[in-house]
Amino acid sequence: TNPKTVEINGQKYATDSWFNVSSTVLSLVSRKLHLQTDHPVAITRKIIESVFPGPTYKYYNEFDPVVSTYENFDSLGFPPDHPGRARTDTYYINKDTLLRTHTSAHEAELFRASASGGYLLSADVYRRDEVDRSHYPVFHQMEGARVWDRTKVPNGDLAAAVLADLDQLPKHNMKVEDPNPPFHPERNPLQADHHTPAEAAAVAAHLKRSLELMVNEIFTRAKKAAAATTSTTTSTNPTSDPTDDEPLRVRWVEAYFPFTSPSWELEVFYQGDWLEVLGCGVSQQALHANAGRPAQMGWAFGIGLERIAMLLFRVPDIRLFWSRDERFLAQFRGLEEGGLEGLRLFVPFSKYPACYKDVSFWLGGGGAGGAGAEGGVEWHENDLMEVVRDAAGDCVEDVSLVDEFTHPKTGRRSMCYRINYRSLEKTLTNTETNEMHDRVVKGLVGRLGVEIR
Ligand code: PHE
Predict the structure, then answer these.
(1) Is the ipTM here above 0.95?
(2) Tally of structural domains, the chain
(3) How remote is the CA of residue 172 from the centroid of ligand 1, in Å?
(4) pLDDT at 244
(5) What mean pLDDT is reported for the chain?
(6) Are residues 276 and 364 in the same domain?
(7) Which top-rank group of organisms is this from (predicted)?
(8) For residue 263, what are the domain limits?
(9) Which of 134, 250, 451, 452 is deepest in the core (most CB within 10 A)?
(10) Helices marked H in 59-102
């Protein structure tokens, strides 16, 4: 039974049968970690903002998370059957209103506002997802964009204007691999109806340099934080940290997004691994046209702030960002006042014991239920993840499928999930863990109609 209306940031919304936002998630809407002084998510935002200075770039940090389905998906060219639209993946308030799944939901509005110039928008975003140490239903993204207007550049020569702006950007000494041709006829085409190859190449070059400078700033700071930490703590093996002066290695990988073409992901080589850090591309012309700016062209990127903060400070578990525990928060206090010069790695407080509990069940309620479908409800793992989050909140570190089979005669599907109960803040008692697990089991039966084995 859903509430008829919900209130989000002081605004009331009518729900309908699409409503699927849990009260846990609703309670996080007001937290705005990207705006909390000395919070690592806010610090990460500030570091990135420092690479995109005003007045060219404007900063927006207060956009409300409630947007229309149209803004989040349709306006960006997501096809009607795109999996991201599913209720198993997205939090809907009603069929036409949802909690944004990405900051790109505001592109149209900001392209309209940014005749020429750029912007950075940081905000909380919402996705139904698995439970593990790097996923949380609320996280923060930063979207950045830079646009030029053909009618406002000297001689209408947009490529020349963009290259002149590129020339103003600082240089760097990173090792950049960019092995793919700039345009791929099908996967990553030039928007030939709207751009010349020279224009697209110029915008791509400006995009790439800008984002390389950004990751250089982040990872230079990460290395410094690591060096500062090992020199002030008694480390048994200080040389294993990347305190060296090796230039950073990055590579551009071809990617796909419905609202950019060509598109790329930027990967960084850090601590022995290639890490994907952001998605970006040359904006689809339809977005500019729909924003009432048909003469505009430009680039956009999106980056996950927790993911970067986890690398920067080596925060081992995404739940920590939501913690109000002083052992977490105190480690970052005063950093903003000190101009972020005192960055150190996060020093984990002791890890409390884990408690694994399994739950096995048949899909579909009693009787000769089919393979998973009961009353038209299709099985989706994210629904189980929601039940677990509602029942046990931040006391669950990880949920994983450990066994699955289909009965050869009845065709019924059986699954076994393993839930790792572990608080970041204390040792859980047996009673506490058992109570949480009971709530999980009840939720699975009551909400998903499974039959416990
Ligand atoms: N919105 C995309 C995501 O969430 C990232 C992106 C932003 C890609 C802007 C291209 C341009 O994955």
Answers:
(1) yes
(2) 2
(3) 25
(4) 60
(5) 93
(6) no
(7) Eukaryota
(8) 31-65+100-332
(9) 250
(10) 69-72
**Residue 320 sits in the same domain as residue 359:** no
SS3 state at 159 = helix
Q: How far is the CA of 281 from the centre of ligand 1 (A)?
A: 8
Q: What is the pLDDT of residue 364?
A: 83
Of the candidates 417, 414, 411, which has an alpha carbon nearest to the alpha carbon of residue 371?
411
Q: How far apart are CA 288 and CA 145, in angstroms?
A: 12
Taking the C-alpha atoms of 212, 218, 224 and 225 in order, what is their torsion angle to the nearest 10 degrees? Answer: -160
Residue 283 has pLDDT above 50, yes or no: yes
320 and 430 both lie in a single domain: no
SS3 67: strand
Mean pLDDT for the stretch of residues 384-392: 96
Ligand 1 contact via 40 beta carbon (within 6 Å) = no
Quote the pLDDT of residue 271: 87
Q: Closest ligand 1 atom, CA of 279?
A: 8
Q: How far is the CA of 265 from the centre of ligand 1 (A)?
A: 9
> Which residues fall within 8 angstroms of residue 268, CB to CB, at 6 or more apart?
215, 219, 248, 249, 250, 274, 275, 277
pLDDT for the residue 374: 42
